[in-house]
Write a structure and sequence with these properties.
The longest helix is centred in the middle third of the chain and has 33 residues, at about 140-170. The protein has helices at about 5-25, 30-55, 60, 75-90, 105-115, 120-130, 140-170, 185-205, 210-240, 260-275, 285-295, 300-310, 315-330, 340-345, 350-360, 365-375. It is mainly α and about 375 residues long. It is elongated and about 90 Å long. The protein folds into two domains: about 5-240, Rhopdopsin 7-helix transmembrane proteins; about 260-375, Orthogonal Bundle (Arc Repressor Mutant, subunit A). Keywords: DNA-binding, Membrane, Transcription, Transcription regulation, Transmembrane, Transmembrane helix. This is Helix-turn-helix transcriptional regulator. One of its GO terms (molecular function) is DNA-binding transcription factor activity. InterPro entries: Homeodomain-like_sf (IPR009057), HTH_AraC (IPR018060).
């Protein structure tokens, strides 16, 4: 029995999706978020297999196999949204409201059972023939397809919005972003968005009357899913923190009840701690750490930084670090110190973060700044 290129490609893709899903769901170290992602990948595998089954002749002999996976895309968006929130917020609550995210899938699945699966076999074959031929380009089919993809894209937008909110909160709480880096999550969402775009193109091409164009687009879709599965597996193996949740407690001070004297005292204590004791040189200094040292609350300290100084905690600490770095780079007594040594000395533990912050505050790289100041002196 000969296998086509699409058969081999599909088999590899399905294996990767199912293997990774099984690991995420069944591992003893699995968290809630990893099980959600595993379920998401498994549903993608089922959806792909259902699509491949639909364009094969198998469903013509066994019509009861058709359409079971057609409504699964309505689960993709909600699962990604829940996964994103579970990853970002350890205090994310699974309350009864979550079920509302799955209502479109439940309704669509029930309509599918009523409209197809409980019908007699001859009626199933008739519906199947229409779906594969004459009704394939009908307006209701086109609208339904666009609604399904629109549903996923809206949820992807929700996920991106949640990440932006979270990153903003991080800048108010931490002086170093390396251990709270969520770029991998953004890459994951971006890759899946790319898969959805290819899938939409595949569906639109499917409305044409050219079978070979559709077959080519199916191959492109499978390749995109394979790339997504491979990238997800690679990141799961490469980054140990890939499936760990991150801490979050929102800080709000819009309706502040702090007195001017309390704010002034914290500001004075803050200057003493940062200018005299140079606490900013602690690599992973957090808002909570500094608040404990000042014997105040993170909420009050955050208000002082944002409202009184006009900076986030991240900006304030890194400005202090860069001010000290520029001083050390121009100090003749420290001319033998390397830039890397100065970087660690002022509190950075990442060269890229140091260079980015340095350029942001001085508009120059550390090396060019040192050279310019040396030639000037």
């Amino acid at each position: 029995m000969a296998f086509s290129f699409l058969d081999v490609l599909s088999a590899i893709t399905l294996f990767l999706l199912i293997f990774l899903a099984a690991v995420l769901i069944t591992s003893k170290k699995s968290t809630t978020s990893s099980r959600i992602l595993g379920t998401f990948l498994l549903l993608n595998a089922l959806n792909l297999s259902g699509g491949l089954l639909f364009i094969s002749d198998v469903v013509l002999q066994r019509p009861w196999l058709a359409f079971w996976t057609n409504t699964l895309p309505l689960l993709f968006g909600p699962l990604l949204w829940i996964y994103t929130n579970d990853i970002l917020y350890r205090d994310f609550e699974y309350d009864k409201k979550i079920i509302w995210h799955f209502v479109p899938f439940i309704i669509s699945f029930l309509l599918l059972i009523i409209g197809f699966h409980i019908q007699p076999d001859d009626r199933k074959l008739e519906i199947l023939e229409m779906a594969r031929n004459s009704e394939r380009t009908s307006l209701p089919v086109v609208i339904t397809t666009l609604v399904f993809y629109g549903h996923i894209m809206i949820y992807l937008g929700f996920c991106w919005h949640q990440i932006l909110i979270y990153r903003k909160e991080l800048y108010n709480r931490y002086s170093s972003m390396e251990i709270y880096n969520v770029r991998w999550l953004m890459v994951l969402l971006g890759l899946f968005g790319f898969v959805i775009l290819i899938a939409l193109i595949n569906s639109l091409v499917g409305f044409s009357e050219q079978p070979y164009i559709y077959e080519t687009s199916v191959i492109g879709l499978v390749i995109a899913i394979l790339f997504f599965a491979s990238s997800t597996l690679y990141r799961a193996l490469t980054f140990p923190h890939f499936f760990k949740g991150l801490p979050r407690k929102a800080i709000r001070y819009a309706d502040s009840t702090f007195t001017p004297e309390e704010i002034r005292n914290v500001r004075i204590s803050l200057y003493a701690a940062m200018d005299e004791k140079e606490l900013f040189r602690k690599a992973h200094l957090s808002l909570d750490d500094l608040a404990n040292h000042l014997q105040t609350t993170p909420r009050l300290l955050s208000q002082v930084l944002n409202n009184e100084l006009g900076m986030t905690f991240f900006e304030y600490v890194n400005k202090k670090r860069i001010d000290l770095a520029t001083s050390m780079l121009t100090d003749p007594a420290k001319k033998d110190k390397t830039i890397l040594e100065i970087m660690y000395d002022v509190g950075f533990n990442s060269k890229s973060s140091f260079n980015t912050a340095f350029k942001r505050f001085t508009r120059e790289t550390p090396s060019s700044y040192r050279e310019k100041m040396s030639s000037t002196s």
